[in-house]
Specification:
- Pfam families: SBP (PF03110).
- One of its GO terms (molecular function) is zinc ion binding.
- The protein is 14% helix and 17% strand.
- It is α+β, with helices and mostly antiparallel strands.
- A three-stranded antiparallel sheet has the order 1-2-3.
- The chain is built from two helices and three strands; from the N terminus they run ααβββ.
Length: 76
């Protein structure tokens, strides 16, 4: 039995209205589905809510879970 390969769906950033194709970026960006710009941003809109990406746990959190401009949430 032979299977035909279908076109892959592009891996895009999770941030609202960001259409950056992550396929040429590092594995870290692909794993967490975030482009380099939004990885370092202090505020991103995700699902209509201002959030920030925590580089420690690899999740988006509301801004209240961070101290100042730190990129790791208080839980970590």
């Amino acid at each position: 039995m032979s299977y035909t390969r279908t076109a892959q769906v592009p891996l895009l950033c999770h941030v609202d209205d960001c259409n950056v194709d992550l396929s040429s970026l590092k594995e870290y960006h692909q794993r967490f589905r975030i482009c380099d710009y939004h990885l370092k941003a202090e505020i991103v809109m995700r699902e209509g809510i201002p959030q920030r990406f925590c580089q420690q746990c690899g999740r988006f959190h509301t801004l209240s879970e961070f101290d100042g401009t730190k990129r790791s949430c208080r839980a970590r």
